[in-house]
Amino acid sequence: MWRDGVYAHWFNLAFNILITAKKNVAQQTSLRTNLQLGIYRVIDPVVKVFIKLGLTPNAVTTIGFVLNVGVAVIFILGAEEGNRGDLSYVGWAGALILFGGLFDMLDGQVARLGNMKSTFGALYDSVLDRYSELIMFLGICYYLVGHHYFLSSLFAFIALIGSMMVSYVRARAEGLGIECKGGLMQRPERVVTIGVCALACGIASSYIGGDYKLYVPGIKFHVFETMSIFTIPIAIVAVLTNITAFNRLLDAKKALLEQNRK
User: Fold this and answer.
1) What CATH number is associated with residue 138?
2) Quick check: 94 pLDDT over 50?
3) 194, CA 20 to 30 Å: which among 69, 71, 132, 222?
């Protein structure tokens, strides 16, 4: 049964967002850069403390990875020990996703401010980022399947595929000497979207209940439930990550053709 009829609306919204964003790429890049600089100003005092404590960038990266393992553990515990209406596990996992995401920014700043940049460090960071994301989505899929959100678990798996392909296309293109960045759903956007929405889902369940469902007259199934606060954004991430990967592929193709003409 098509339990989440509202997905179609959100898909249309996602594509409209994509079209609008393509028309304002320069503005989007500038906004993202300014936001990153603002975040760096906030976290730099923490970075300096880490440097004084003797933490290396690789150590910070490892801490972030361990936190993401914790995210998966929370989701798995939620599937095994919680009931369908208990969304507190989702909320706690969301908080830990955001906390772990901070370490993804901290390791780079520790390397820059501590003058500890290394080629292996960059590789180590990229590898553990992929493992972190894979493990996080493993936990999400396990939770969704465990509580019979089968359609949403499918979208979570598609989001996982898109997330991996966004990174792979960039890595492969850069291996061919082509810069391949940008897009609507890079890793920071994915972490923030999933983390914030999971946290919001857990908080909302405390006020409206984990079993809340919204029905529309004339429609036999519910069009919204508390869990939708988490599952709808996952569906959007599933769409936008794959669009981002495809756009990167097209950008790389264009750059390679131009390179071959020279």
Assistant:
1) 1.20.120.1760
2) yes
3) 222
